């Protein structure tokens, strides 16, 4: 199944005015996205290399304050998502909030849910507002892959802790004498499933093979992502990106991983995970990325009272979970029909789709699963297939393959992008969907705010 032909050059000429019903419900509080920002997403090991995760989170929060002129005590709560935590700042939400100058009276907590960590931060914010606990919540996410915790082996850790407790010189010398060369081998972190010990790249390769996704299809999709991202960047559409003066380094104002190549160059790359016959390569996978994002979420009533013009309504959302071995990355396939059902919408009602691109093979496998009656009937208990998003509505400003994927920060980027695209393209409903480690997934419906 070849989904792609030429790139959709004339899409923005087809802006339509929609007249669909609103998803507002009697007696249910309207919750709005007021603003969303992010630091430039940079390849790990580049300009952000000497920072820490809370530095990036702080920059995103300061960018949000600058863009909204929000009083620093006007927020009720702050929630941040992160995946690989720096031990010194385990509650990165609190440290970043204090660093950004928010009132120290504002509580803050940190969540982790793999690649949907900031999605969880946002929906937790929605829950707090819906429950009447808060009127204004800042949610966000950060990831810093330039410096990840590398631990001593467990035997070495136990010896060092025992040394710390030892009271006599004899006890200390005895413990030091017990250290062997093998104890000095470090434990390196890996983007792998704890339950299966399989790296995500291997899972993506197996998933692509299971759904018959060719190397050519994956490379075509990756090239599409980079080409669309470059056009969006050049056209000034990525308006959520803030300028950030990196301490001791340059001022950064744009993502640096967008690199349109050619099919010929991409075809030369060797498989990155399953060798020699795999189809997942460095060119059709998302890259290790540093970055942070932040969004301001309010009750509509509070936003209007403070003089804000919201960007979008945050409507129904779902979380799903599947077998982490064979269906690790199929979150969008399972979450999309569920969230549409909750909202009372069909696939054809959605004007803007933004799916997280972990790997081109993962996206293509999801699209093929969604287009399969057999998969819908066998695995999802449906009478027929889910149906696929039209490519002329899908990730039109690039995606994680090209813009970058700081694990904890991507969800906020997806939601903010939907809000901006709905305004630009004249649509009414957008849908965000993402997969995550552990076989989990998320989807949310976003409704355009009346112009």
UniProtKB/TrEMBL annotation:
Classification via PROSITE patterns: THIOLASE_1, THIOLASE_2, THIOLASE_3
Coiled-coil segments: none
GO cellular component terms listed in the entry, alphabetical order: endoplasmic reticulum; mitochondrial fatty acid beta-oxidation multienzyme complex; mitochondrial inner membrane; mitochondrial outer membrane
Domain Thiolase C-terminal residue range list: 308-447
Subcellular location: Endoplasmic reticulum; Mitochondrion inner membrane; Mitochondrion outer membrane
Annotated EC: 2.3.1.155, 2.3.1.16
GO molecular function: acetyl-CoA C-acyltransferase activity; acetyl-CoA C-myristoyltransferase activity
A Pfam family reported for this protein in Swiss-Prot or TrEMBL: Thiolase_N
Gene3D superfamilies linked to this entry: 3.40.47.10
Catalytic activities: tetradecanoyl-CoA + acetyl-CoA = 3-oxohexadecanoyl-CoA + CoA; hexanoyl-CoA + acetyl-CoA = 3-oxooctanoyl-CoA + CoA; octanoyl-CoA + acetyl-CoA = 3-oxodecanoyl-CoA + CoA; an acyl-CoA + acetyl-CoA = a 3-oxoacyl-CoA + CoA
Biological processes per GO annotation: fatty acid beta-oxidation
Complex formation: Heterotetramer of 2 alpha/HADHA and 2 beta/HADHB subunits; forms the mitochondrial trifunctional enzyme. Also purified as higher order heterooligomers including a 4 alpha/HADHA and 4 beta/HADHB heterooligomer which physiological significance remains unclear. The mitochondrial trifunctional enzyme interacts with MTLN. Interacts with RSAD2/viperin.
Membership in a protein family: Belongs to the thiolase-like superfamily. Thiolase family.
Function: Mitochondrial trifunctional enzyme catalyzes the last three of the four reactions of the mitochondrial beta-oxidation pathway. The mitochondrial beta-oxidation pathway is the major energy-producing process in tissues and is performed through four consecutive reactions breaking down fatty acids into acetyl-CoA. Among the enzymes involved in this pathway, the trifunctional enzyme exhibits specificity for long-chain fatty acids.
Full protein name: Trifunctional enzyme subunit beta, mitochondrial
Species annotation: Gouania willdenowi (Blunt-snouted clingfish)
